[in-house]
Amino acid sequence: MTTTVQDKQPAAAAANAAIERTAAYYRLKADVEDFYYHEADLIDDRRFRDWLDLLAEDISYFMPIRRNVKFGQQAARENTRRGEGMSWFDEDKWTLTKRVEQILTGVHYAEEPLSRITHMVSNVQIKAVRPDLDAPRELDVTSRFLVYQNRVEYETYTFVGRRNDTLRLTEAGWKIARREILLEQNILMAKNLTTFF
Amino acid sequence: MSVRNDFDQLVDVKNGFISREIFVNADIYRQELDKVFTRAWLLVGHESLVPNPGDFYTSRMGDESVILCRDKAGEIHVFLNSCRHRGMKVCRYEQGNTSLFTCPYHSWTYTTDGKLQGVPLHRTLYDGVLDREANSLVSVAKLCNYKGSIWATWDKDAPDFHTYLGDAKIHLDQALDCRDGREGGSEVIGVHKWVFPANWKFAAENFLGDTYHNPSHRSVDLIGIGPSAAAGKKGRRDDELEKAKHVWISFPGGHGVHSAIQPEANEYIESFLDNPILEKYFRHCFEERKRRLGEQARLLPFVGTIFPNTSYHGRQPRGLCAWHPHSPTSTEGWRFFLVDKDAPQEAKDYLRHYYMRYSGPAGMTEQDDMENWLYATAASTGTIARRHPFNYQQSMGAYVTDHPLGGEVSTQVTEQIARGFYRRWTTYMQGGDWNELLGSPASNRQAAE
Ligand code: FES
Ligand SMILES: [Fe+2]
């Protein structure tokens, strides 16, 4: 059929092997998990402006569309790409701020009344540390999410997937510099994506 | 399933009432699939999705999966995505390139022009019986590549696509033509697909030109998400049409558009304050278009629906939508986002960002549409609710039939386009012939003269 493109190991997975599971690794992992739980609280408690503060000014927030492709083409073609074409989200802090402002108008009817949402984060693994574990400034972290949304009366959606983040340490703590959200759906099985992931 | 024939009562356009049954009733829904979606011209995709021989793109027509495919010789086909043997989907990839479609079930294979080629153990099991020609993939009856957009119908008696469009053509053209006025030249830069719990007609009707629902977009208008938003402009689009006269037109074939006519002194209006490169580019496009089209350049598209379920956004966020019926209360939305193929990268990149923040389930504007369609559908399923028809009395009679643009032209916000759409929907549901389905535009004109 089509030319086969060999699946490449993601760079993060290769880096995984390099990080030794030392006490310093687990301390850092606990720190990152704590950060994620805090982030989930902010969104679920509808403290959206505080959530924005966790995002680096130059954040790239990206949710590709997942496509059904032939075996062997996953790496090359399964996901739409950051920086080209259409995805679900491929945006910066300005746009994310607009999304928050919109909810806060109180007349964004798709989130008025507000949905009830719970974010679960799990499977946290640090895949790369820069410059090193002794003085980490920037991390590549993978995790899984399960987001439950209940809206008005009967409307219920479950969003499950992975996140690939780059976190950056600042004076004010960790900030999300880059986030890739891989929702495990092809055709979106929800009428809207009004929450943050 | 009971077959209904009370459509004249359900759809009372004369008095402006339409029964909620047509939006929620399962029998009516089945009948729609039979009577509307097997006959009308439906949008399948765009040639830019299948640029090379052997390229395919899996699409839908109504509630059925189809394959849009460019054969080895370069010709475009549309087939039902179902094996002639036991119906297995012969293609479950969204897009790709192939020389054969191999059915996973018993391995019949089909060529890119739909012909049955390989049948395992043919000689032993089927010799002298199986007629390969008669077992090609089921092809649409007619297909049209209209300025790059691909349309098809299952009805061999359907008129050609241009006739089907009628006077709605020049409005759709503006979604498909280059920004500088050259014909065609668009490409699809991505497709959104999502499922929402509403009847498909809510979406189709919204894009006919339901300008009246503007207040539901107050939240984006308050914060500003348009191409001059960072410069402090509120609103969700641009100011391009601020001096224009708006027109709402119902066409005899059931299509409806909301377009705008710029004043005689057709001057460029700055719309991209956030980016000087874009401002320069779009100003250039504007001047070129004016030079090419002259008077005709004053007509600008806004939105429209080509009967029954294809909608377009003609300027920004530019694209073609297909509202695929899933059930009476569920619809699969597909939007093909368009840019000029030869637009500068900077413009394409800007536009895709704007499209993403505006459109579809992740778009700040259209999320509010979806909320409306869902709860309007949900609150119409009850027995009591169904006894009370929707009100369609807005701007009754406020249109002319002698306008050079053809059709029934209104210069005020109107539900005449919706009334026209459902009037034609009724003709389809009653099994009308193609003369009736086209609404004989000539006689409309004569009546006005
Ligand atoms: S169903 Fe396709 S070969 Fe049998
Ligand atoms: Fe809308």
Automatic annotation (TrEMBL), chain A:
Biological process according to GO: 3-phenylpropionate catabolic process
GO MF annotation, one: dioxygenase activity
Protein name: 3-phenylpropionate dioxygenase
Top-rank taxon, per record: Bacteria
SUPFAM superfamilies xrefs: NTF2-like
Organism of this sequence: Bradyrhizobium macuxiense
Family label: Belongs to the bacterial ring-hydroxylating dioxygenase beta subunit family.
Keyword line: Dioxygenase, Oxidoreductase
From TrEMBL, chain B:
A family per Pfam: Rieske
Keyword Iron: yes
Domain Rieske: 41-152
Keywords, sorted A to Z: 2Fe-2S, Aromatic hydrocarbons catabolism, Dioxygenase, Iron, Iron-sulfur, Metal-binding, NAD, Oxidoreductase
Gene Ontology MF term list: 2 iron, 2 sulfur cluster binding; dioxygenase activity; iron ion binding
Family classification: Belongs to the bacterial ring-hydroxylating dioxygenase alpha subunit family.
Protein name in the entry: Hydrogenase
Organism: Bradyrhizobium macuxiense
